[in-house]
């Protein structure tokens, strides 16, 4: 099944569709370093030009974040989680959202050993386009942990981000 895709890269965003059969977009992005973007185009932030790309392969490492759409996973696999409010800086992007963890555990235990793409729910992403601040709300924003500049989190959550500068709320 083809699902809508918006991926945020340096100075531009990719818009199109990805094939995502029976799995969450986060899982598909973490499974492979590249994926095929179909019926796509790219929007340049500097001048607003839009270029048709057709179908092509995209390297996940180019993406700071992705708006998640499509399947949220199997209901039978859902567990109750605790939400942690996070502010994140990813290159030219700022994002706010909720990171989920199992009750009694820090957010995303084993964060350093999991895939690089991490979902934030109830998220907002901000960036400059044509000299103006643009902000977009997303039900889920998948951020690339490998491109994090810093994270603002409570002191208890800071340990979940090894190797990433953490700005605490205190």
Indicate the CATH architecture of the largest domain: Roll
Name of the level-1 CATH class of the largest domain: Mainly Beta
Which structural category do the helix and sheet elements fall into?
A: mainly beta
User: What gyration radius follows from the Cα positions, in whole Å?
Assistant: 16 Å
Poorly predicted residue ranges: 108-113
How many structural domains does the protein architecture include? 2
Instruction: Report, as a whole number of angstroms, the end-to-end distance.
Output: 45 Å
- CATH topology (level 3) name of the largest domain: SH3 type barrels
Approximate strand percentage: over 45%
- The general outline is globular
Q: Major β-sheet, in short? A: 11 strands, mixed
Percent helix: under 10%
Order of helices and strands: EEHEEEEEEEEE
Q: What is the number of helical segments per DSSP (H or I, 4+ residues)?
A: 1
The average pLDDT value, as a whole number, equals: 84
Strand order of the largest sheet: 4-3-2-1-5-9-8-7-6-10-11
Number of strands: 11
Secondary-structure map with pairings?
Blueprint (H helix, E strand, L loop, with lengths): L1 E8 L2 E8 L5 H7 L2 E11 L5 E10 L5 E3 L14 E9 L2 E9 L15 E13 L2 E13 L5 E4 L12 E3 L2
Parallel strand pairs: 10-11
Antiparallel strand pairs: 1-2, 1-5, 2-3, 3-4, 5-9, 6-7, 6-10, 7-8, 8-9
How would you concisely characterize the structure shown here?
By secondary structure, the chain is mostly beta strands.
């Amino acid at each position: 099944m083809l699902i809508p895709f918006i991926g945020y890269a340096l100075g531009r965003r990719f818009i199109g569709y990805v094939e995502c059969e029976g799995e969450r977009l986060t899982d598909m992005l973490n499974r492979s370093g590249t994926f095929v973007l179909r019926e796509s185009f790219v929007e340049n932030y500097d001048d607003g030009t839009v270029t048709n790309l057709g179908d092509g392969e995209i390297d996940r490492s180019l993406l700071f974040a992705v708006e998640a759409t499509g399947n949220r996973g199997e209901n039978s696999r859902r567990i109750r989680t605790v939400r942690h409010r996070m502010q994140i800086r990813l290159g030219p992007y700022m994002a706010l959202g909720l990171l989920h963890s199992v009750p009694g555990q820090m957010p995303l235990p084993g964060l350093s050993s999991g895939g690089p793409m991490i979902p934030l729910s109830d998220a907002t992403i901000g960036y400059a386009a044509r000299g103006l601040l643009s902000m977009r709300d997303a039900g889920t924003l998948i951020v690339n942990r490998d491109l994090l500049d810093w994270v603002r989190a409570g002191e208890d959550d800071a340990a979940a981000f090894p190797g990433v500068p953490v700005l605490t709320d205190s």
